[in-house]
Amino acid sequence: QSWSRGMSYCLHSESHLDTGPIYVRENGKLHMVKQGAGSLQNVTPKERPFSLFSRSFSVELCMNREDDRARRQRTDHFIFTYTKEGNLRYSAKSLFSLVLGYISDNVDHIDSLIGFPEQIAEKLFSAAEARQKFTEPVTGLRALQKFTEAYGSLVLCSLCLRNRYLVISEKLEEIKSFRELTCLDLSCCKLGDEHELLEHLTKEALSSVKRLLLKDNSLSDAGLRRMTAPVRVLKKGLENLMVLDLSCNPKITDVGIGYLLSFKKLNCLDISGTGLKDVDAVIKRLQMQIGLVHSKVPLKEFDHSNCKTEGWAEQTVLQWEQAVMEARKPQDKLKSRVTALHFYGKTRRIEEVVKCTLVEPETKASGNLQFYKENIQNCHLPLKKEVAGSHELKNNKKRALPEQERERTSKQKHLCLTVEDWDLLNTY
Length: 428
Description:
Pfam families: LRR_6. Keywords: Leucine-rich repeat, Repeat. The chain is α/β, with parallel strands linked by helices. It has 15 helices and 12 strands. It has a 7-stranded mixed β-sheet with strand order 6-7-8-9-10-12-11. A 3-stranded antiparallel β-sheet has the order 1-2-3, with no helix packed on it. Strands 4-5 form a two-stranded antiparallel ribbon.
């Protein structure tokens, strides 16, 4: 009776709605109840296309945001895509991607990556970079140091910070964490002699630098003296330097050029726009002591368009620059203050990006002062692989003898240290 009452209720209540056929299983057989008739018939159900949800069904994914305070972007464990027919398809993410995402979210808690496969480490770095983990103030530095300690030049082998003095000031510790750099461009940053980054150049972590561009940085003889002290005395620091750009630093004089003679591996040098007094004497001195010849045409090695940021952290440096530029945008709260200053006639201070320009008077006075080594032909061009003949070998042996004598005489000169040199060494 209870079954018949429930069935009659389903059949007669809300009869105006078309609920479709109703199937009832009784004694192992399936019966269909026709609506309105109230009778049971043994009818085999017709096959209907299976649909899990109706057309009006909608789904909304709700994720538990436990780290809302940290504003971390959480992802779900499923990937939703659409087929060509417009149907929704979902598939579970691989275990590797789930673990990679979890570790990248907590990359600052990694103890060490030394000995970890670099192929997986690169994917981990990219995942953390996509989450902008390296832009965070404290945890970003700690996470970046784990990668630079383990992979060195793979993280970054070339760094171009030309005209990015704000990035240097905001991310100085992160920049100092990069190791095994081979190219560093600090042109047009107005760093000066006492900047912490220039002092960091003398550290062992940057002994791999082969190309250093310090154009227009307000350097003087004192800055060159500090920068070359480890090379001149301890034979450490920038001893592998091959290309050096010191152009547009009018405070560098003949005395400062003398400190550069300790760079024995130097192949290309640019001192255009410096405050040299006796240019001819400097040209002869560079040629006699380190074999640099004055170039009559500009060298491609000092074309700054060739210097680029290369490595895993290329996008990280761009993120730093973007964050700095966003912070420099004027805020809405300051508009009223600027308007008031303009009304009362006070000069509005506009901070513009420092543009890299040549120092015209000094450049015209000294001319193009770029140097290269003769035995490399033109250092800005690719070297030609030629088989050296017996005659060339004899000439090379003859040239090697005077070079050894020059090294002996230069060593004897370096042994005679002044009191200022000893005081400078004590600071390292």
